[in-house]
Q: What sequence folds into this?
């Protein structure tokens, strides 16, 4: 009995140790495609697999860039989105939902908006008020769930009608939002409380709260792998990634990543995870096995804090605000270790 207990304790200690990088960045440069607009901050990206288009929030320029993935060229640069942050494309609705913060003053007094853009005409379909600082969003069953970061709430919008349905107080600043289709729950990081909150999308009520480990400081970034029911949580206060089991509702692995991790992208087909950081470091993980393995990490370009993956090709996209005096979309591809 003593031997069994000792072995168990050793296993627990080993299992909780942070896994380290396997090597440098396992990505090679494919192309830097020039983008129009000023050398200003970018924010989130969203891919429509059907149309093969990438939608980019050019936050500092107040614009949305539409990029053709097949032709590798910018097809539109839409004005009228001051302080654009989150962006979510919903192909079946032919809608692109853009979180418009309007700048720092709106984050204090309110004035955030969600704008729906018709994906085919690229014209605004509707705009609704959305708290102080609307950020990330997730779509489920005709509703858009939006993190109002400084408003400390989740905003629920009827995505077809363009009407506010509910506001859900969170008790802290809202980080990113994501949907778990297997469990039927919306999840949102409450970054100043160190919690992962589950929301029932039908009732628009909080279903559960989970306190995250103290090893995570300011849980902002969030992405969910539907196949394995694992959530990936980026802790930008201490350069940490948590792997969270949504079935067991507990953290199962912890990794060191680049300073100030921000946007995460899951390549569901090739079973890889990409974590982009404000420091310009990108970390790459193999998520095909029960235990996730870090494949490597390294610099991908200055300010490479936003990332997206084309599900058709596996190519990785990183907008860079200033490359030789103009913004570019950096395209990279995974290169397996030899």
A:
């Amino acid at each position: 009995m003593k031997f069994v207990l000792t072995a168990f304790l050793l296993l627990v200690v080993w299992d909780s140790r942070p896994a380290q990088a396997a090597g440098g960045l396992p990505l090679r440069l494919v192309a830097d495609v020039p983008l129009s607009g000023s050398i200003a901050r970018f924010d989130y990206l969203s891919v429509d697999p059907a149309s093969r288009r990438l939608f980019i929030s050019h936050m500092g320029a107040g614009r949305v860039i539409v990029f053709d993935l097949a032709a590798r060229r910018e097809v539109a640069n839409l004005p009228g989105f001051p302080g654009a942050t989150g962006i979510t494309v919903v192909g079946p609705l032919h809608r692109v939902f853009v979180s418009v913060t309007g700048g720092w003053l709106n984050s204090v007094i309110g004035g955030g908006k969600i704008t729906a853009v018709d994906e085919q005409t690229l014209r605004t379909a509707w705009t609704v008020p959305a708290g102080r600082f609307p950020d990330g969003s997730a779509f489920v069953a005709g509703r858009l769930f939006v993190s109002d970061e400084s408003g400390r709430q989740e905003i629920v919008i009827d995505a077809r009608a363009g009407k506010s349905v509910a506001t859900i107080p969170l008790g802290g600043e809202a980080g990113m939002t994501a949907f778990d289709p297997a469990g039927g729950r919306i999840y949102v990081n409450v970054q100043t409380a160190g919690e992962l909150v589950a929301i029932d999308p039908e009732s628009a009520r909080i279903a559960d709260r989970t306190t995250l480990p103290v090893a995570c400081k300011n849980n902002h970034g969030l992405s969910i792998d539907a196949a394995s029911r694992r959530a990936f949580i980026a802790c930008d206060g201490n350069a940490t990634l948590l792997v969270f089991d949504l079935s067991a509702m507990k953290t199962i692995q912890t990794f060191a990543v680049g300073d100030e991790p921000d946007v995460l992208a899951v390549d569901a087909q090739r079973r890889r995870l990409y974590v982009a950081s404000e420091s310009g470091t990108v970390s790459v993980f193999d998520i095909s096995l029960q235990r996730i393995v870090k494949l490597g990490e390294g610099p991908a370009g200055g300010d490479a804090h936003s990332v997206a993956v084309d599900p058709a090709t596996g190519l990785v996209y990183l907008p860079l605000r200033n490359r030789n005096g103009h913004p570019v979309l950096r395209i990279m591809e995974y290169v397996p270790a030899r």
